[in-house]
Design goal:
The chain has three domains: 257 residues, Porin (Beta Barrel); 121 residues, GMP Synthetase, Chain A, domain 3 (2-Layer Sandwich); 282 residues, Porin, CATH 2.40.160. Helices cover 12% and strands 42% of the residues. By secondary structure, it is mainly β. A hairpin with a 4-residue loop joins strand 26 and strand 27. The strands form four sheets. A 13-stranded antiparallel beta sheet has the order 22-23-24-25-26-27-28-29-30-31-32-33-34. The protein has a twelve-stranded antiparallel beta barrel with strand order 1-2-3-4-5-7-8-10-11-12-13-14. The radius of gyration is 29 Å and the shape is globular. Pfam families: YjbH.
């Protein structure tokens, strides 16, 4: 029960979501944490974008699985298991056809296609709802799913090679076992789900998995191919199950589901926006900002008002009938919502002769875009049906390069911000200890020398935890840039997490720049420079980054390990290391919630290669993605996992608490930190800073314009 106890508290946090109305018949989650019956897969697909976490146990088998419905028909899973040893595996399933009146749903899947191969199997499966309360599944499996009453592979008529299943798995895992796919003996499996009522479902299945490995290595006693179970799912948030497995064992599972397209607070807890002020018929008596002195006074009056509403005024000016306002959105995650609230305020504040507003949201002191709105459109559309779509169609979007408005506001609030808060740091998926963690106190600060010049840092003090219990570190021929990362601050329990000075700039139209210097992350200090080309209305962005970094001391103090002058020097015996790294990057926003990124260059261990990333972002701020890096480091030299890969989940604070906030929490689910494919972990990279204020993200979030 060790892995179950250690990981259950992690996935329980995922249950903090509202329960929607029950669907007609949702997909059931198996002991593998994937759509299916009990141990066997089915062709049913979870709701699009559903994110689930499953912990399960029977006999000596324990599993923890995270599953994401990437597309309506495509399911991806990451699993951490204990059989005879700890093991990581990845699954994918694609629903070839959805269920029709007479046609069953049909899916094809790969289980443990990227791992050590301990669960390696492939299948084709069909599922049909026979009545409102009975659903049947039948499938054909290979690999482990072809190990009970197997027969000669029917694909052998294509090529005799399909009849033999090669053993091409490796102990380090992490490789695609393509040479095994749909090869070797095949076998049938199937099962039935009977919905007793809206909450309870009875399950029965015939398993084609002989559990040879478990029988041989942990003494599992498999006496029957039949499994029986009962699941309870009172809402769309969680599912609990109990099972009688293979004639000998009792099993249990708990699955927590989240719909990242929903929100706990549909209307939010923010204050209502200021209503749009409609101008009177006569403009002759309206006040105007017709002199520099009056404009300066108007900006001085506007600044404090915007500050109380969650915005920092940078400057404003009126030229003819156009008012240009540059500001920083401090509270609202979606820049579109910030644009809408500032525009409403200006209808109340701007002179009546102003017909056009140009709003320039900024982050880190750099203007992101120029959004042009006609005042008359705001007056007409505020309460109109389909107001969001109509206002977006009438808005203009352009670059905001150039000087700030002529009249700046001298913000009287302190430029020094600080805070003290608890922290929880987890280290997951270590082969010898699945969960390590610390809890403690973190003190952080940010001093804004100028809006685009920021000194920031953080210091941590551990109060409790076991992250200092670092066991033996596997040897490697690569420089030790990541594999001993757990040793940083482990013995002392405290230290400087980061301390750096960062400058942001706008060197030209559609161009953005960043320069950082200091203790850039826990492992490395040095200097980092970056430039990004990102037109406001383009889906494509291109960037380049160059870094010179040195390894920090393990005590997380101010010291560095001296630069190594001997070419033969390595870190295997505590030597010295510094490195120049750099990447060229391409970013593409598909305008459907998906964003892709490719980074090509040199990594911290001196290896050359590329990182590929794909993220899906939702209107409410959730982001789920995956990435992998392939470099010139061989799988053998890389070690366990074979190459760098993982998943990441980003959860916005306003989704959790309902109050306006730009904060997010990022969780990475990845293989062990190894040296190959390792990149500098620096915050505030330009694309992350810039993209929210450009047309693609503004369009996706424009539904919040009137909120």
């Amino acid at each position: 029960m060790r892995i179950f106890k250690n990981i259950s508290f992690i996935v329980a946090a995922l249950s903090a979501t509202s329960a929607d109305a029950q669907d007609d018949w949702r997909a059931n989650y198996t002991l593998y944490g994937t759509p299916g019956i009990i141990d066997m897969p089915s062709a049913a697909a979870p709701a699009d974008a559903e994110l689930s976490a499953t912990v399960s146990v029977f006999g000596d088998t324990q599993r923890a699985t995270f599953t994401f419905q990437v597309l309506p028909r495509f399911t991806g899973s990451f699993r951490y298991s204990l059989i005879d040893t700890y093991d990581r595996s990845f699954d994918v399933q694609y629903q070839i056809a959805s269920e029709g009146e007479y046609r069953p749903a049909i899916a094809v899947g790969l289980r443990d296609f990227l791992g050590t191969g301990r669960y390696s199997s492939e299948y084709v499966v069909a599922t049909k709802t026979l009545s409102p309360n009975v659903r049947a599944t039948a499938g054909l499996g290979w690999g482990r799913l072809g190990s009970v009453n197997g027969f000669t592979n029917p694909l052998g008529f294509i090529d005799d090679g399909f009849e033999i299943r090669p053993d091409d798995s490796i102990d380090t895992g992490g490789t695609v076992l393509a040479g095994q796919f749909f090869r070797g003996d095949a076998a049938f499996f199937g099962g039935v789900e009977w919905r007793i009522n809206d909450e309870w479902v009875a399950l029965a299945e015939y398993s084609s998995d002989n559990y040879d490995r478990e029988t041989r290595l942990v003494g599992f006693d498999r006496q029957s191919p039949l499994n029986f179970g009962l699941t309870w799912q009172p809402n769309n948030t969680y599912q609990l199950g109990a099972y009688y497995m293979y004639g000998t064992d009792i099993g249990f599972s708990a699955t927590f589901m989240i719909d990242p397209t929903s929100t706990n607070f549909p209307s939010g807890l923010e204050t209502a926006p200021i209503p749009v002020a409609v101008r009177g018929a006569s403009l002759a008596a309206a006040a105007s900002w017709d002199t520099p002195q009056v404009q300066a006074a108007g900006v001085a009056a506007l600044g404090p008002i915007m500050d109380t509403l969650g915005f920092r005024l940078i400057g404003a000016e009126i030229t003819g009938s156009t008012m240009r306002v540059r500001y920083q959105n401090n509270d609202y995650r979606a820049e579109a919502q910030g644009v809408g609230r500032v525009a409403r305020l200006l209808t109340q504040f701007a002179p009546a002769n102003v017909d056009t507003f140009i709003l320039e949201p900024t982050r880190r002191g750099i203007a992101l875009s120029a959004v042009t709105l006609r005042r008359g459109d705001l007056e007409v559309l505020e309460n109109a049906p389909n107001a969001a779509a109509l206002s977006y169609a009438r808005a203009g979007f352009s670059d905001a390069a150039g000087p700030a408005p002529a009249f700046g506001w001298d913000d009287p609030t302190p430029a020094f911000l600080w805070g003290i808060a608890p922290y929880l740091e987890l280290s997951l998926f270590d082969g010898s200890e699945p969960v390590r963690g610390d809890i403690g106190i973190e003190a952080s600060f940010e001093y804004e020398l100028r809006p685009n010049l920021v000194l920031a840092g953080a210091y941590r003090q551990r109060l409790a935890g076991n992250r200092n219990e670092v066991g033996s570190i596997s040897k490697s021929t690569l420089p030790d840039v990541r594999r001993t990362g757990q040793r940083y601050g482990a013995e002392s329990g405290n230290g400087i997490e980061n301390l750096s000075l960062t400058w942001y700039g706008r060197p030209g139209r559609s161009l953005y720049s960043r320069f950082s210097a200091g203790y850039l992350e826990r492992n490395f200090g040095g200097v980092s420079g970056e430039i990004l080309w990102k037109p406001v209305d383009r889906q494509l962005a291109l960037g380049a980054e160059l870094n010179y970094t040195l390894l920090r001391d393990y005590d997380l103090g101010f010291g560095f390990r001296p630069v190594c002058s001997d070419p033969a020097c390595t870190l295997l015996s505590g030597g010295d290391y510094d490195v120049v790294t750099g990447h060229v990057s391409a970013y593409y926003d598909f305008n459907n919630g998906f964003e892709a990124q490719v980074d090509i260059g040199r990594y911290l261990a001196g290896d050359l290669g590329a990182t590929f990333s794909l993220d899906r972002e939702f209107e409410n701020g959730w982001k789920v993605g995956a990435y992998f890096s392939l470099t010139d480091v061989s799988f053998e030299d890389f070690g366990e996992g074979s190459f760098d890969k993982g998943m990441r989940i980003e959860i916005p604070s306003d989704w959790l608490f309902g109050k306006p906030s730009r904060r997010t929490t990022v969780t990475n689910l990845s293989s062990l930190s190894r040296d190959g494919g390792a990149r500098l972990r620096i915050g505030g990279r330009l694309y992350d800073v810039v993209e929210d204020g450009h047309r693609g993200q503004l369009a996706e979030n424009w539904g919040r314009f009137w909120r």
